[in-house]
Write a structure and sequence with these properties.
By secondary structure, the protein is an alpha/beta fold. It has one domain: Aldolase class I (TIM Barrel, Alpha-Beta Barrel), CATH 3.20.20. It has 17 helices and eleven strands. It has an eight-stranded parallel beta barrel, surrounded by seven helices. A two-stranded antiparallel ribbon has the order 1-2. Helix 2 runs parallel beside helix 3, helix 7 packs parallel to helix 10 and helix 8 crosses helix 10. The longest helix is centred in the middle third of the chain and has 20 residues. The chain is globular, with a radius of gyration of 19 Å. The protein binds flavin mononucleotide (FMN). Flavin mononucleotide binds next to strand 4, helix 15 and helix 17.
């Protein structure tokens, strides 16, 4: 049953036991609950879990690869996931928010003169100036940190890394935010330089590590997504990223400021369909022979099997579906498709839980 989904794949150098990947998903859960969640997802039969937003520079509030405590956290996570026969990938991430510049708004937030939505909007408005004015020394410190962080990630038990091509890589890539006039701005080649240097820093230190790239694509007519790469710019970005050392592409709509576009609900005006971002995978497929992984509204095993069989994609990543039912892979491989809790993309407890600081859950947990 579903032999295509079940078939192993060499994913940029790493052997995956099947084609299902848990997409990077920040959970906002405490350690015990978080580990329990990842154990369930790994035990449910997916081939690899991507841990979202692993910071490339030292961090105080998120487990950091640069501290003993942070390393212990990731090692424990790797043990739990590996015990279930699942691989682990670190999504290496650098925010494009100017946190120092935001400090002056803290009193307004504390006294509730500024709402959370207003704060988010101010933060988004600052991305362009922040990216445009970031000193070259700081850029080089950050791109080098991708290399450091990748080494530490492997040391702590991760099997591979993904470069988060949204956020800072994506903002540098995008003419919407990047108004620099130096080597890092202007032409698409220059806007790709930050991402290329980040990937190269990893490749220089780790010649054999598989490097996945979360390729954030933005669409015109109608306009969706602000960070990342225009569809028309993909013929420039994809080959230079591949040349720098990328070994697979995880393709999605670019984000910025509007999470409901990258995590689209069933009611979304443009991206309501099953496999809503597959058309971007088609663009990428034409430009590379590297494995292409789709993400976005993938829930239906027949549909996914067909996309892989026809070589439209090589792997399918899921976030919300595996939160709704971590056993999705095991159920489809063992003739239990009717028992799947199908994600209805309501976004109530997953994205909703994250936005209201309740942690990521699912409406099925209430049943
Ligand atoms: C609660 C939540 C948190 C997420 N956190 C991240 C993240 O840390 N990094 C990332 O690149 N994408 C993140 N995503 C986006 C997912 O990886 C995925 O691209 C998106 O949810 C669409 O896939 P889906 O339809 O399978 O949910 C998150 C999604 C959800 C629902």
């Amino acid at each position: 049953m579903y032999e295509t989904i079940k078939s192993p794949i060499n994913y940029g150098g790493l052997e995956l036991k099947n084609r299902i990947i848990f997409a990077p998903t920040s959970m906002g859960l405490r350690r015990e609950e978080l580990f329990e969640r990842f154990k369930k997802i790994a035990a449910g039969g997916c081939a690899m879990i991507i841990i979202g937003d692993v910071p490339v520079l030292p961090q105080k509030f998120i487990p950091s690869l640069y501290t003993k405590k942070g390393m212990e956290f990731y090692k424990s996570l790797a043990d739990i996931v590996h015990q279930e026969g699942c691989m682990l990938c670190a999504q290496l991430h650098q925010s494009d928010s100017n946190f120092k510049g935001m400090l002056k708004y803290v009193p307004g937030v504390i006294t509730k003169r500024i709402s959370a939505d207003e704060l988010r909007s101010i933060m988004n408005q600052q991305v362009g100036p922040y990216i445009t004015n970031l000193p070259i020394t700081k850029i080089q410190e950050i791109t080098e940190a991708f290399g450091n962080a990748a080494e530490l990630a492997l040391e702590s038990g991760f099997d591979m890394v993904q470069v988060h091509g949204d956020r800072m890589c994506g903002s540098f890539s995008s003419a919407v935010f990047n108004h620099r006039t130096d080597l890092y701005g202007g032409s698409p080649e220059n806007r790709a330089r930050f991402a290329v240097e980040a990937v190269s820093a990893i490749r220089r230190r780790l010649p054999d590590v598989p490097i996945d790239y979360k390729l954030a694509v933005r669409q015109e007519n109608p306009h969706y997504g602000n960070t990342g790469v225009l569809e028309s710019e993909l013929p420039i970005f994809v080959p230079i990223l591949e040349k720098a050392g990328v070994t697979s592409f995880h393709v999605t709509l670019a984000n910025h400021g509007k999470l409901s576009d990258t995590i689209p609900p069933k009611t979304h005006p443009e991206f309501s369909a099953e496999g809503c971002f597959l058309k971007f995978c088609d663009d990428v497929r034409k430009l590379t022979d590297l494995p292409v992984c789709a993400v976005g509204g993938l829930t239906d095993p027949d549909f996914i099997d067909e996309q892989i069989k026809s070589r439209r994609i090589d792997c399918a990543a899921m976030s919300r579906q595996l939160i709704a039912d971590p056993q999705w892979p095991d159920k489809i491989f063992n003739y239990r498709v009717d028992e799947i809790n199908r994600c209805i993309r309501c976004n109530k407890e997953c994205l909703g839980g994250m936005m209201s600081h309740r942690g990521v859950h699912c409406i099925y947990e209430r049943k």
